[in-house]
Input
Amino acid sequence: MRAADSHQTTRVRRKRMTGKERRQQLVEIGRELFAERGFDATSVEEIAARAGVSKPVVYEHFGGKEGIYAVVVDREMRTLLDMMGEALTADNARTKIEKAALALLRYVEENTVGFRVLTRDSHVASASGSFASLLNDIASQVEHIMVDEFADRGYDPALAPMYAQALVGMWALTGQWWLEVRRPKREVVAAHLVNLAWNGLSSLEARPKLQTKARGSD
Output
């Protein structure tokens, strides 16, 4: 190959990215690093080095790693909320719970990197993007379902928010556990979650009391 041809080939390989392409590249790299190392342990230098650019390029597009982190978390939250929201439009309460459990586990399975980002301690710069905030958003959707169920069964609807938090918390913690073990398979885990949630809910006591007296209650 002639020197001129070789030089031309190199130029083609090093074709400059558009601004949109560069932003997407930095977001994907940031997503991977935040999942691997967390926000605090990830540096702008690392992001730039992995992208093959200088630090000023990162600052130019996002103003720093905080900007990249905010975009990553926002995208992951919207993805999961969309999946959960679609599941909660089913016809009846049990089907909604089944589809919601499956939706969360499907997100964990198909978006493992994103789920790792969400479940790490969120940085103060993205307090609104914390995993707790995301769970609150999901719980508020579940709460509307439980209010109707409680009213139909004669329970106090005012307690629905607490039960919604408990139910969503169970899903989330199970999802974090399943992220690492990946067994049994998704459908089996979902079936057991629904078994615990639904059969427990179907036998709720209207006014539950502890059988054991709490220490210091005398």
Q: What stands out?
A: The chain is about 70% helix and 0% strand.
